[in-house]
Amino acid sequence: MSVFPIESDAVLLSMQDTTHPLATFSRHGFELDDAFWPSVEHYFQGIRFEDLALRERIRAAEHPQAARKLARRYRRRARRDWAQVQLAYMTRGVYMKAQVHEDVLAALLATGGRQIVETSQYDYFWGCGRDTRGHNHYGQILMDVRARLRAADDA
Questions:
Q1: From the centroid of its chain, how far is CA 45?
Q2: Which of 75, 97, 100, 79 is closest to 25 using CA atoms?
Q3: Alpha carbon 84 to chain centroid distance?
Q4: Full-model pTM
Q5: For residues 38 and 27, is the Cβ–Cβ distance under 8 A?
Q6: Closest CA to 51 of 66, 24, 70
Q7: Pick from 91, 44, 96: which is nearest to 67 by CA?
Q8: Residue 127, helix vs strand vs coil
């Protein structure tokens, strides 16, 4: 694991905060991969499965947490390359959400050039973890999408 310093002016958020527009649990739906996804969490959890019936059950879950629990229940049936492609799929979902929803785009751009940190105390992959030894992949994805959107706007 890597330790990274959290900057004093960093934007701190939780992926599970249903009220924060940058969280994966926020109800900002979008069309992608031939379906309407109610949230980034629904998309990310559903797209990991090639079984279309299971994917649809996850997509139709009432709450993002229910989508996550359903995907975890069937994790052994996930596509074989999931570990290699999961960051790309999360990036696609976040990018599409920001493209479709002006409030999400505005919230992302309002972070300026500041560091974005997913503050999960227990998730050392997506977040910083309790001791900031986590990878903060979700925060990095948000910063990467922000840079791509700014570059596209400048072009």
A1: 10
A2: 97
A3: 16
A4: 0.94
A5: yes
A6: 70
A7: 44
A8: coil
